[in-house]
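Quick start: what a row looks like.
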Amino acid sequence: MIDIWLAAAGLLAGLALGTVFFGGLWLTTRRLGHSRKVFMLVLGSFAGRSIISLVGLWLVVRFAGFSGIIGALLGFVAMQIVFLRLSMKGIGPGCPK
């Protein structure tokens, strides 16, 4: 029974981490055209998003164990799909996907 609660907590953590990671990626790509230092923007964004995600996943493993990390990875992938669907919304049917 505890494994279900740990998996649910991991799922919520994964959804939050996925939102931070892919939301940050979305914000970074929107700012690329306006930035004077594109390389620093991309590098800083990648480093920040990666550090936050890895530390968050490490905390899930530390406190929730195997079932928690499975839930967290499912939540992370779910947010990837959500952000992918949202980013493809503005693309018309004639555009390559």
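That is the whole record. The CA atoms of residues 13 and 44 lie 23 Å apart. DSSP finds two helices and no strands in the chain.
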